[in-house]
């Protein structure tokens, strides 16, 4: 059962494990919370600052009235940052932990291929992150409509897909190192380094737009129904990065002695 049947079997096993360990519940709950809090925080921040006292040493701090753009910027920032951390955490031990415990070798004694093993884990992680982003975005759209104004749904959905892609890149790099390394801590460290490098490169004009971190700017524009610029190139580059990471992970795993 090394073909599609083996992949479906392993994918079902991964999803059931996510449910059994409550990983799915926790990830969705965390991203849903940040999604719902983002428009609330944007709406209440001026009042919070006012209540905390805005006068110090003769300096008066004034906050402009909150806008829909503030809510969306808060949403993309929160889900982008915390989503990236979650992508690292759920990917770092995906393969490394199973190799360390010896369960990977046991699974591979069954009639399933190594490619199916890798792809099932990668797809399960992508679905997990997708479920969290979808829930967070749905609650954010609802609260933004209640507190500010309803945003165009197609653009808002496209924004969530773009942000999800950025998380897949970080998760893909971490997943690759989970295959290469024997320790999940090493894989997690590599994921954090990749995230830091992406943040640094994102500040470089002309290049930053093609990084996963750089996708946050068009994600905001899409959610607001504004022109997002030339998004085709950045999307293709980030899709290529995900495919390269998974391809390298598959090749490396086939060559390893488990």
Provide an overview of this structure.
There is one protein chain. This protein has 258 residues and is mainly alpha-helical. It has one domain (4-255). It is 76% helix and 2% strand. It is built from ten helices and two strands. The protein has helices spanning 4-20, 23-52, 68-91, 96-101, 103-107, 114-147, 153-180, 184-201, 216-224, 232-255; strands at 55-56, 59-60. The protein has a two-stranded antiparallel ribbon with strand order 1-2. Helix 3 (68-91) runs parallel beside helix 7, helix 6 (114-147) packs antiparallel against helix 7 and helix 7 packs antiparallel against helix 9 (216-224). The chain is elongated. The two termini are 19 Å apart.
What is the fold's blueprint, element by element?
Layout: H1 4-20, H2 23-52, E1 55-56, E2 59-60, H3 68-91, H4 96-101, H5 103-107, H6 114-147, H7 153-180, H8 184-201, H9 216-224, H10 232-255
Antiparallel strand pairs: 1-2
Helix pairs in contact: 1-6, 2-3, 2-6, 3-6, 3-7, 3-8, 3-9, 6-7, 6-10, 7-8, 7-9, 7-10
The biggest beta sheet is recorded as: 2 strands, antiparallel
Low-pLDDT segments? none
Number of domains: 1
**SSE order:** HHEEHHHHHHHH
What is the number of strand segments? 2
CA distance, first residue to last residue: 19 Å
């Amino acid at each position: 059962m090394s073909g599609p049947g083996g992949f479906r079997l392993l994918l079902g096993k991964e999803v059931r494990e996510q449910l059994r360990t409550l990983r799915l519940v926790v990830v969705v709950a965390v991203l849903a919370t940040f999604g719902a809090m983002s428009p609330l925080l944007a709406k209440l921040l001026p009042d919070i600052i006012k209540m905390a006292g805005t006068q110090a040493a003769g300096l008066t701090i004034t906050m402009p009235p909150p806008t829909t753009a503030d809510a969306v910027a808060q949403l993309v920032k929160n889900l982008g940052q915390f989503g990236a951390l979650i992508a690292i955490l759920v990917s770092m031990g995906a393969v490394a932990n199973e190799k360390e415990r010896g369960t990977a070798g046991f699974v591979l004694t069954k009639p399933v291929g190594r490619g199916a093993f890798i792809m099932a884990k990668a797809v399960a992680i992508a679905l997990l992150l997708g479920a969290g982003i979808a829930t967070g975005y749905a609650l954010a759209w609802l609260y933004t409509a209640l507190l500010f104004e309803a945003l165009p749904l197609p653009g808002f959905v496209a924004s969530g897909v773009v942000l999800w892609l950025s998380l897949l890149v970080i998760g893909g790099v971490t997943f690759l190192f989970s295959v290469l390394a024997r320790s999940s801590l090493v894989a997690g460290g590599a994921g954090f380094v990749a995230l830091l490098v992406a943040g640094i490169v994102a500040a470089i004009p002309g290049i930053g737009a093609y990084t996963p971190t750089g996708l946050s700017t068009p994600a905001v524009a899409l959610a607001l129904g504004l022109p997002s610029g030339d998004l085709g190139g950045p999307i293709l580059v980030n899709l290529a990065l995900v495919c390269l990471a998974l391809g390298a992970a598959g090749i490396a795993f086939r060559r390893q002695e488990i």
